[in-house]
Amino acid sequence: MFTGIVAAVGRIEKVTPLGSEPEAGVRLTVAAGGLDLADVELGDSIAIQGACMTVIQKSADAFDVDVSRESLNKTVGLGDKGVEVNLEKALRAHDRLGGHLVSGHVDGLGVVAKFEPVGESHELRVVAPKDIGKYLAYKGSVTVNGVSLTVNSVSDRADGCEFSINLIPHTVEVTTLKALSKGAKVNLEIDLIARYVERMMSAQ
Fold this sequence. Notes:
Elements: E1 8-17, E2 26-31, E3 45-48, E4 51-58, E5 62-67, H1 69-74, E6 84-89, E7 108-118, E8 121-128, H2 130-133, E9 141-144, E10 147-150, E11 153-157, E12 160-167, H3 169-174, E13 185-190, H4 192-203
Antiparallel strand pairs: 1-2, 1-6, 2-5, 3-4, 3-6, 4-5, 7-8, 7-13, 8-12, 9-10, 9-13, 11-12
Pfam family, one: Lum_binding
Organism: Caballeronia novacaledonica
Function: Catalyzes the dismutation of two molecules of 6,7-dimethyl-8-ribityllumazine, resulting in the formation of riboflavin and 5-amino-6-(D-ribitylamino)uracil.
């Protein structure tokens, strides 16, 4: 589990194919940036752009993860060398829950409809697929590229659901969200509680 509070921005330094078959995944070597790896053990989880990955090797300032083809197909920002990525170590039982409960399982891809300065902040508008839109609610939580954010508005449309977010300067500065532009794809994870509420309601 994670909180969606990004601890550091790292960079994918190396992408190594794990086979020659089309369905083969890749091994990523990720430069950890300011993420402290001293307490990270092999087998621990680290969220990369919102996707939970398992550490299989590490050094003082970098770590390796294996990414399946399924994960590569369902996410953005994991298979490209040189790309900056949001990083967060797994939540410990005694940690502060600064964002919201995040599983690190990407539910789908959204498309940025707008990313522009508004006063001292930025307005981010994302179009989510219809099957994700039903879980989005005014003042609810959503994870975008691993960042826990609060939904400011929700509008259903023919091609999906558009939601808006206000990004304070600090969030823009310390995450990869600052590099977004109109048309960019982003990893989305819906709120865990909304997922269970939908299941309970449908079971009745």
